[in-house]
Design goal:
single chain; Rossmann fold; two-stranded antiparallel sheet; 11 strands; binds S-adenosylmethionine
């Protein structure tokens, strides 16, 4: 593809969620801070997963749920995965992902992107997957058990799930609302549910997964506010692999940490009620 054509195509999209270097042309992102945030997300959950898999994703078939413009799919390809299937409910994101992969000259025999609501797609038509990644998606929906059931049907072993979480101790789903017009949000219902940490552990367990929570490190927290405030976490779930040697600090949930969370939430709520904090 000629340079002018690349620039024209980049500009033909009303927005980009991730920054790509497409033969020297950078896709524009709404906030500069998202670039560092994305890099720190990679360092937080994807780099340890690649290390855990032996330093590359060679031999792995991967399913990316809510793939958007293909940023994480591209990371998986660059980590040498065999094959990646990306699904997203907005056609524009699928067009972006195909464009990115075309400019990056990724062999077409290594990927496919499909547009559709994940609840209407039968993942089984795409085969089985060693790894499923579900990033920034689990809090933009309300049918969590249904999604995990669908994932589990095609997932042979590992699930990487990164989601916003409610800080409530115990197993809870917090009901939230978001406009479906926003490009990164839910596709169908404005009502969404945000799980607590223990709810994620419990729901994944129902489908035969053993799950651990990765503890975000100071650099991750500095770049992503929700990591800093314990409102966003990455979970690694496994059906077969032994996660005891997963190369990252694992977050433990103790009575004390749950108690501290309640105190901190209560203080925040009070400060907001008093108008001291936004
Ligand atoms: C917040 S973005 C996350 C993108 C990317 N995974 C990341 O972490 O940077 C959520 C994506 O999920 C897609 N999406 C939301 N609900 C969906 C649904 N029910 N089915 C398919 N895609 C959906 C949106 O179009 C959007 O691209």
């Amino acid at each position: 593809m000629e340079n002018e054509e690349i620039i024209e195509k980049i500009n033909s999209f009303p927005y980009w969620i991730s920054q790509f270097d497409l033969k020297g042309n950078l896709t524009p992102v709404p906030l500069e801070s998202t670039i560092e945030g994305t890099m720190q997300r990679k360092s937080y959950f994807l780099d340890p997963l690649i290390e855990y898999c032996g330093g590359s994703l060679e031999g792995k078939r991967i399913l990316d749920i809510g793939c958007n413009s293909g940023f994480w799919a591209l990371q998986a390809i660059e980590a040498e995965c065999d094959y990646i299937v990306g699904v997203d409910g907005r056609q524009m994101h699928i067009d972006q992902a195909n464009f990115v992969f075309e400019v990056k000259e990724i062999d077409k025999s290594r990927y496919e992107f499909h547009c559709g609501n994940v609840f209407d797609l039968d993942f089984r038509q795409y085969g089985e997957f060693d790894i499923v990644i579900c990033l920034g998606f689990f809090h933009h929906m309300s049918k969590h058990m249904q999604l995990l059931d669908k994932i589990s049907q095609v997932n042979k072993d590992l699930l990487l799930l990164e989601t916003r979480v409610t800080r409530l101790p115990g197993e809870y789903m917090q009901i939230l609302h978001e406009p479906i017009e926003h490009y990164a949000n839910s596709l169908d219902y404005t009502l969404t549910m945000c799980p607590s940490k223990k709810a994620v552990l419990s729901m994944t367990k129902q489908f035969g997964y053993h799950s651990i929570i990765i503890e975000p490190q100071p650099a991750h927290k500095a770049a992503v506010e929700n990591y800093n405030t314990n409102r966003r976490l990455a979970f690694i779930s496994s059906k077969i692999s032994d996660l005891s040697d997963f190369p990252a600090e694992i977050k433990e949930i103790s009575r004390m940490s749950e108690f501290t969370e309640i105190i901190s939430m209560s203080i925040n709520l009070l400060l907001r009620k008093l108008g001291i904090k936004k």
